[in-house]
Amino acid sequence: MLELSNIAKVYRTSEVETTALADISLTIREGEFVAIMGPSGCGKSTLLNILGLLDTPSDGTYGFFGYQVAKAKEAALTALRRDHIGFVFQSFNLIDDLTVAENVEVALLYRGLSRGERKKRIAEALERVGISHRAKHRPQQLSGGQQQRVAVARALVSKPKLILADEPTGNLDTANGEAVMQLLKDAAAAGVTVVMVTHSLAHAAEAQRTIRLLDGRVVSETLLAA
Amino acid sequence: MLANYLAAAFRNLMRNRLHSAITTVSLAVGFTVMILVTVFWRNERTYDQFWPNADSLYMAMGRELKDGAPSIYDDASSRLTPLIAAVPGVEAISRMVGETVKITMGPTEYELEETVWTDPNIFDLLPVKAIRGDPRAAVADPGSAVISKSIAEKLFGANDPMGRPLTITTIRRDTPQTFTVTVGAVIEDRPRQTHLQPGFLYLSGNSALARQIDPTARALTYFRVRKDVQRENLERDFAALSARHIPPVRGVKYDVAPIPIKDAYLRPGGDNWFSQSGGDLVRSSGEGFTTLFFALGSMVLIVAAINFVTLMTARGAGRAVEVGVRKASGGRRRDLVLQFIGEALIYTTLAFLTALALSELVLPLVSKLVDAEFSLNYIEDFGLVAGLGLAALGVGLAAGLYPALALSSFRPAVVLKGGLPKTPGSALLRQILLTAQFTPLVLLALGAVTANAQLFRSIDNASTTGDINSVMIREPCTSSLRARMAVIPGVKMATCLEYGGQNIGMVTGALGIGQRVQAEVKGKDGRRLEAQPTLADTDSVTFHGLKLIAGRFWTSPTEAGVVVNETAARNLGYSNPRAALGQPVEWKETGAPIPSGSGLSLSTSGGPAVAAEANDPVRRFTIIGVTADRGGFADYEAPLYYQDATAKRRLELGLRVNDAKDPALLKSLDAAWAETGALRPMQRQTYIGWLEEAKLAMGQIFGLLNGIVITGLVIAALGLFGLAAFLAEQRTKEVGVRKALGASRATLMRMLVFQFARPVIIANLIAVPLVWLGLNVVMGSASPNERFVAPAWIYLLVTGASLVLAVAATFIHAWRVTGQRPVMALRYE
To bridge B508 with a disulfide, which of A28, A213, B513, B789 should be the other Cys (CB 3.0-4.6 Å)? Predict the structure, then answer.
C-alpha cells in the first residue's frame, strides 16, 4: 500500500521558489490501477517521481508498502526501486546500444539473479508483451508501439509490486496505445499496483480510480470501476 | 552483468565512431610516446650494468669546476694512477690510453682510432669473452695484441687472425713509430649498452713504446673498490686527494672524481646535467636530455588523458537515458561508476594495444634518428611491458574516474523525462582542462620555435660569414707553413690566428650544454662581460670579415688595442659604438685550455697546491674600434678581439679558401704538410664540416623536441575537434532559436568558433607573457651567451598557428550546426 500524507515538493533556486506539489494526501491499495490526470505543469510527473522513489518530498510522509521513505537515504530508495518498482515512460527510454533482450535485462541486473534465471524471466516477459521474435533487435529497428511494449516488458520482468507509467501511450497511435493499456490492465489484474499519468480520458477511464491534480494539489478523485 | 556492460560499451563505441576513434587514437599516440620515452629512458639508464662487480667499479674523471660544480670533464691524467691506487678501499686499478694507429696489411692501410695501450690487468676489471686465445696472457705480452671480433673481421675477413702479424704505425705522434705485434687473442665485441666503443685493438702497456707515452696523458682509468666501501667516503677521499695534489690553474679549479661505471655513460661528469660528449673510445649522453624527453613524453600522455576526460564528459548527454534507466532499475551509483570506469579501461586497453603496434613501427625510426638501438622484446622485457601496461591502465583509471563520477551523478527523474543532464561545473572543468592542455603546449611550441629559430639563425649567420669557406689548420702557425699554404691553388688567404671565436658553439651554450667563458671583462662602471678575448691582428679581422662601424683597426702589428662588436660595446655599458671608443677594458687571463686530465700542475709531492692564478696577467686595453654585429649567437661568441705583441698564445693557421669541401684542395693541403717533413698527418678542420656536425647533433635533439611538441598539438587539436562535435550538437536547439530570431549564420559562426576556441585563446594569454617574462626578466640577467632571444614574429607565429589550429578543429562543426534550417534545429531532441 502507498500512503502519502501532506506531501509537498518545493523547488528552490537562489531567486525563485516553485511549489510543484502541496499537501498531497493519498492512499493507493495494492493491486489498484490508478490514473493521474491534470494539465501540464500541475505536478503529475513530480508526484510520479516521488511515488517511484526517484525524488523525495520536501515535506510530508510517504509509506511505501510499509516503509517510511520520505526521509530515506538514496541507497535505501535504490534498493526499494530495484526490488519493487517498474517504470514505463512516454519516450520509452530504451538504451539504444542494447538489444531488446538486453534492455529488458537491465531491470534484473542489479538483483543478483543468475544468468539462467534472468534469461528465463526475459523470455517470459517478452512473450507476455508479444515481442519475443524481436529479442535480438535494437530499439531503433522497432516501431514506437513495439518499443513501448519492450518498455512494459522491462517494467514487468522484475515482478514489481508497483508499475509507474508516465504517459505510456502519449507517443503511440490508437491501436498501439490500446495494446499497451491492455498490458497494464493485465498487470493490475495480476495484483500489481499500477499508477499511470495520462492526458487521455479514454485511457484514464480504464483505470479503477482517477486522481486529478491542479497547481500541485489533488482537486478530485473519481472511482471509475471495481 | 558484465556482458550487459560490455555490450553497452562496445556498441556505444561503435555508434560514436568519430569520438571513439579520437579518444582511442589520441590515447594510443600518448601511450606510444610513453613507450618510446620509457624504452629510451630504460636504454639510457641501463648502460654498464652487465659488468661483474659493476657496483664496485669506478672511473676516475678529471673535471673543471665552475662555482664548485663540475662544468667540463675529461679522462684523468695517468699521473694520478698511483695516487688513486693508494686511496683506501681501492683494490685494483687499470688504465687505457688511446692511440690512433695505421695498420698496414700488405697494400692496404687501415686507420684505427679504437686502439689502446693498456695495463695488463684490464680484463680483470673489465672482463671480455674470449673467442680465440687467452686475452689476459696476450695483453701482458708486449709482442701481442688482443683484437675484437669486428676489428678481426675488418682486418682479416674470414681468415683466422690468430698468430698473424700486425704492422702498426702510431700516426698522431710527432715522431710516428712503426712496430709489429702478433694477434694473441680474439674477443667478442662488447654489448652496445656500455660507454666504451664496442671493439678495441689492445696493445700491451708492458711494451717499451707504451712507456714513451707522456706520463700526464689522459687515460681511461678504471678501479675497483672493496664491496664495503661507501661512495660518500670514496668521494670524500678523492676530494682530499684533489685538494692536496691538483692546484687551480689560472683561477680555474679542477678535481678528480670517482664516477661509478654505471654512470659513465649518462653522468660521466657527475652532476653535469646536460653533459654530452664522447670520443674515439667512449660514448656518453646527457642525463638532462633523458629527463627532458621523459617529462615531455609524460606531458603528451597527460594531453591525451585530458582529451579522454573532456570527450567522455561531453558525450554524457548521449548516455543520460541509460544512466536514468539503470538507476531507476535499482542500479546504484557505485555500479554505474564501475561500469564507466570499465569502459574507460576498454578504451585504454584498445589504445595500449594500438600503441604497442605503433611502437613497433616508430622505434626503428627513433633509433635511426638518435643513432641508437631501441627495441621492446615482449618476452625478455616482459616486466617492462607489464609495467607499461599497468601504467596505461593507471592512466585510463585516473582519466576515467571523473567522467564516471560525472555520468553516474545524473538524476534519473530529470534525464528520463528528456531533460538535458547537467553536471555541476563540468563545462567549466572542461574549459579549465582544455586550457591546461594547451598552455604547456603553447609554451613548448614557443620554446621550440625560439630554439629552432636561434639554431637556424646561428647556422645561417655562420654560413654567410666568410668563415664558412675556411680551413683551420690546428698546427703552430710558422711563417714557412703559412707561406707554403698561401700559394696552393684555391687558397685565397692564409693567416695566423687564435681560434676560439668563429664557431656556433653558442647554440649549444644557450641550450645549457656547457660553454666555457674564458674571461670576465670589466667595462664601464664596473660592468662585467663574460667573453672569449681572441688574439687578433689586421689579417685575422679581414679573415673573419669583420666590418667597422666606429673607430679603426690596428695601424701596426705592435699596436695594442681591442676591437669589440656592437653587442659587446653595449654590454660593456656604452650607449652607442662611438661612446666605447677610447674607453678602457681589462680582464684577467683565465682561459687556458683545459689541462690534460687535470694533471697539468699535479703536485705529486703532496705539498700544498700552488695558486697558479697569482701569476696570471691582467690585460688592460683601450677600445679602438667597434665592428658590426653579425647576427645571432656569433655576436656573443667572440665580441672581443685584441692585439698584443707581448701575448704568448698559441697561434694556428687559418686558410680562407674557395671551396672548403673540395677534396682536391684538402689533398693539396695534406701534401703541403707532408713536404714540411712532418711524419704524422696534419690536424685540420673545415669550418663547414664542423657546422654540419653541429647541425646533425642539434638536428637529432631538435627532431625529437619538435616531434614531441607537434604530437602533443595534434592530439590536443584532435580532442578539440571531437569536443566541438559534441558541443555543437548540444547547441543545435539554441542555434535554431537564434536563427528563428534573426541571427545570421556568420554571426553564429563567430559566436561558436570563438567559444570553442576560447581555451586556446586563454592558453596563449597565459603562455605568451610567461615566455616573454622568462626570456626577458628571469633570463634577462643571464650572460648574453646563455640567453634565448624571441623576436615578436615568434610570438605572432605560435599564437597565430595555435588559433588557426583551434579554428580549423572547430569550424566544420560550427558550420554544420549553423547550416541547419531553424525548423530542423528546433525539432532537435
Answer: B513
